[in-house]
Amino acid sequence: MIKVTAIETGKARMKTAQRTGRDDRGAIGRKLDIFRDRDWVEPLPILCFLIEHPEGRFLVDTGDTWRNSVPGYLPGWNPFYKQVSIKVAPHEEIGPRLLAMGIDPAEVGTVILTHFHHDHTGGLDHFPHSRIIGPRANFAVSTGVKGMMMGCLPQRWPVWLAPELVEMDGSALGPFPASHPITSDGRIVLVPTPGHAIGHVSVIVRADDATYFLAGDATYSQANLLAEKTDGVTNDPATALATLKAIKRFAASEPTVLLPAHDPEGPARLAGRETLL
């Protein structure tokens, strides 16, 4: 039996122009819109997803850390961090959340990162004994100064971090041109969903009761996906839009529950097995 559980690790706030970019704006224009925007969206959850599978426990993304509240943790020279607000209490980090569920983080055999942005890697410290998998293409743009400019904090990653970097080297899966199986039965598989970030991937979980699409930040909400509205962060709006259309085509081919990392309605859809189309 395969089970998927949503785990909230604090809250994030962003500008309205970040959640939904204007269709007529390119990459640079969208960034300017975020800085000019005076409106903030409601606090959004920072979600991780635990997959319990016959081959072990798999965690998709690790959320963020309470250390965001410590002066100097976020690089002050990058003005983007003033356009978002992360609030995580110590007990809201993924490690304490798992312990409250009766699961030692050391019992999580594999951590899968959809991408390396700080609100997806902030909980890595809790998994020194786990296999860490991430997309090679995204890792390549997440290190050094370039990574720090793009919303990553490589200088805050654990010193022991040596992720297993994977390629999308498997066969096509529906509308996705390639894939990468995680489990031997092929019921947990990565597919490329670039747009929010270069090399971003999503995780498809084919359970007995439904297919679950753990979308990371491929979209911030199901509503935006259905409306084919891309975010303000993307440096490639056309690719981001193509990804949304691919996800919709996939969901039209089999009953699929969409689970982005910041959709407040996601956990309820998961509990009710509410499919996308």
UniProtKB/TrEMBL annotation:
Cofactor(s) it depends on: Zn(2+)
Domain Metallo-beta-lactamase residue range list: 45-262
Gene3D superfamilies according to UniProt: Ribonuclease Z/Hydroxyacylglutathione hydrolase-like
Pfam families: Lactamase_B
Transmembrane segments: none
GO MF, one annotated term: hydrolase activity
Keyword list, A-Z: Hydrolase, Metal-binding, Zinc
Taxonomic superkingdom: Bacteria
Family: Belongs to the metallo-beta-lactamase superfamily.
Stated name of the protein: N-acyl homoserine lactonase family protein
Organism: Bosea caraganae
